[in-house]
Amino acid sequence: MKKLLLIFAILCSGFSFAQGIILSQENAAEKGITPIWPKCDRSRQTPAQCFDNKLRNHIIANFEYPDIALAEGLEGTVTVEFIVDKKGKIEVLEVTGAHRYLQREAIRIIRAIPKMEPGKWGNKPIAIAYTVPITFIKP
């Protein structure tokens, strides 16, 4: 709950245009609210399962170990906090962990997530916050 309030406070103070409700992934899942990844509306999986699978596959398919990080022997886990806003676009909120070269790659991967149908509370689109760890292990 504290994380949700912190995210909400940051968005309201820093981005006056981002007004509205923001749910954490956990709260959204409890309420059965999730953004719809492209083509997940035709899936046999629940929207939340499809979202999770598509996100995992997206990270794997777009993952590129930065050359400079390989040369310097950098490894670690980068945690990216982002929202799928009420227009279905991705906004990165915070990136922590590992080296900045690895953080940049994690941001690139998350920003490459396709636009999707936003989560809805009733008929009103809402933003949903997610936290994703991306682990970099030298090949």
Automatic annotation (TrEMBL):
One of its GO terms (biological process) is protein transport. One of its GO terms (molecular function) is energy transducer activity. The keyword Secreted does not apply. PROSITE patterns: TONB_CTD. SUPFAM superfamilies: TolA/TonB C-terminal domain. Keywords: Cell inner membrane, Cell membrane, Membrane, Protein transport, Signal, Transmembrane, Transmembrane helix, Transport. It comes from the Bacteria. Transmembrane segments: none annotated. One of its GO terms (cellular component) is plasma membrane protein complex. Residues 50-139 form the TonB C-terminal domain. Residues 1-18 form the signal peptide. It is a single-pass membrane protein. It is found in: Cell inner membrane. Belongs to the TonB family. This is Energy transducer TonB. It comes from Aquimarina mytili. The lineage of its organism: Bacteria, Pseudomonadati, Bacteroidota, Flavobacteriia, Flavobacteriales.
